[in-house]
Amino acid sequence: MQLDQRALAHRSIRKFTGNLTAPERLALTNVAQATASSRFGQQFSLIHVADPAKRAVIAAITHGDFVAGPSGDLFVFVVDQHRNHLLMQNSGQSLANLENWDAFLAGVFDATLAAQNMAAAAERSGLGACFLGSVLNDPAQMIDLLNLPQHTFPLLGLIVGRPAETPEAKPRLPHAAVVGEDTYPKAVPLGDYDARVQSYYATRSWGARDESFTSMLQAQLTADLAHRNEIGAILKRQGFNLPDWAE
Amino acid sequence: MQLDQRALAHRSIRKFTGNLTAPERLALTNVAQATASSRFGQQFSLIHVADPAKRAVIAAITHGDFVAGPSGDLFVFVVDQHRNHLLMQNSGQSLANLENWDAFLAGVFDATLAAQNMAAAAERSGLGACFLGSVLNDPAQMIDLLNLPQHTFPLLGLIVGRPAETPEAKPRLPHAAVVGEDTYPKAVPLGDYDARVQSYYATRSWGARDESFTSMLQAQLTADLAHRNEIGAILKRQGFNLPDWAE
User: Fold this and answer.
1) A-chain residues within 8 Å CB-CB of B86?
2) What's the gap in Å between the CA of A202 and the closest CA on chain B?
3) What is the pLDDT of residues A115-153, one digit of tens each?
4) How far is the C-alpha of B104 from the C-alpha of A139, rounded, in Å?
5) Do A101 and B229 touch (CB under 8 A)?
6) What is the largest distance, in Å, between two alpha-carbon atoms of chain A?
7) What is the pLDDT of residues B44-74, one digit of tens each?
8) Of A98, A184, B86, B148, which one has the greatest count of Cβ atoms within 10 A?
9) Residue B12 DSSP symbol
10) Pairing mode of beta strands B179-181, B73-80
């Protein structure tokens, strides 16, 4: 096996030059569609957001000035059981199996796998990308903005473009803390990991700050989730049925 | 942009020759760790399952004889907020933000992105891979088998190896049905899509069968979910708090 070393070189890119060409966008969206799919149901949709007004709204939702553009191309990956609902609406059968935990996770897989496949293809082609999990800061507004119907959910954003920065890679957790052999990995001391993360943040070429892995986690414990605590209610409103008991 | 055409060539591979070498496994698990991560929390774990007895159990759960091996290497990607719980257990703060919808989806993102990044790197390196969403057929048994602690969940399997088959690509839904511009894609007639899927299944070199996209969806409506209807209950038992109302 000859591993393309770019597979190890992921960095989030937030500064871009210009926009993708239409053929480049088509190639990348084709990669998204070519991705593996749960039971081949293709339970996702993908929206390219070019309208400057919509990009400005998503930039505000995600607290990312760079998301407003105009450089870089913005995509939103959507869990989608709506299309299959339409196809099955005259089947005479209950559509409950398109609304339950299994169906929701199938859509989450399909949307997330497609997003990563597109990001990896972009990175291998010399482009850069940044995921925007922060679209979850306000799913209801995302739903309105993109006219998302029942049985869909805006899961993940991705911005892709020609990189105008070369950030350093963030150090990852020790391998043994994450990768297990035949069983869940044993808790391992993180050793100098906090110090290495602190050194990364202190010396990186853009926005040095005082931060360790532990301090990031601590901040998360007290973070204001804003609309993220509405995710369950919004999934229900969108027609998903995700009880916390066996049906 | 020069797109590596292998990015468009995904096929699920279920027949393999031999096993990965230890350096190959290390390279691929390093790719998984190098993947983008939600808020850099690295909320996933990855278990390489080599024990023949455990592979046999997972083969039974996933109804995939090829999963039993011995060829190909089996990995299970796990949503993991347990590690961060351990790191924060003496913080004196509530750990609710590591158990809610936001935390669960962060883990799902991290596990799924890592799995796809590993699969794509394997495919670009001449290896083949097949996702096993079917580990969800019996999450409770997966949890026991892999000794998964609280605040984890076995999300997705992936088998990777040197391909011993060259299956045809499955035709995808029409581009316009999946990809929207600034708004959710309009419902488009699927045209000859059912016929194309039917032709793929009728003529493929392994296991011809009579199947269209529509017939696959119809079968899903009446499928016996077995333990998949326990997913919500199992997530709750694992310590996740995923209400369907705003908290």
Assistant:
1) 187
2) 16
3) 999 999 999 999 999 999 999 999 999 999 999 999 999
4) 16
5) yes
6) 62
7) 999 999 999 999 999 999 999 999 999 999 9
8) A98
9) B
10) unpaired
Helices (H), chain B: 22-34, 52-62, 82-88, 101-124, 139-145, 175-178, 193-203, 213-221, 231-237
Per the structure block, which two tokens stand in for B178? 């999946």
Helix (H, G, I), strand (E, B) or coil at A80: strand
What is the set of domains in chain B, with CATH numbers?
1-167 (3.40.109.10), 170-223 (no CATH)
Tokens 């190890």, residue located: A8
Nearest-by-Cβ selection for B24 from A1, A216, A233: A1
Contact: B133, A247; criterion CB under 8 Å: no
Q: Identify the residue among B217, B228, B230, B245 best suited for mutation to test binding to A, counting A beta carbons within 10 A and taking the highest.
A: B217
Q: Contact, A121 vs B3, CB < 8 A?
A: yes
- B84, B155, B217 member nearest A217 (Cβ): B84
Secondary structure element (H or E) that encloses residue A82, with its range: helix A82-88
Name which of B178, B182, B216 is nearest A40 (Cβ-Cβ): B216
Express each pLDDT in A46-68 by its tens digit: 999 999 999 999 999 999 999 99
What is the phi/psi pair of residue B190, to 5°? -80, 0
Q: Is B16 exposed, middle or buried (0-12, 13-18, 19+ CB in 10 A)?
A: buried
Tell me whether residues A45 and B88 touch, CB distance under 8 A.
Answer: no
Cβ contact B221–A180 (<8 Å): no
Subunit contact B183:A47, Cβ cutoff 8 A: yes
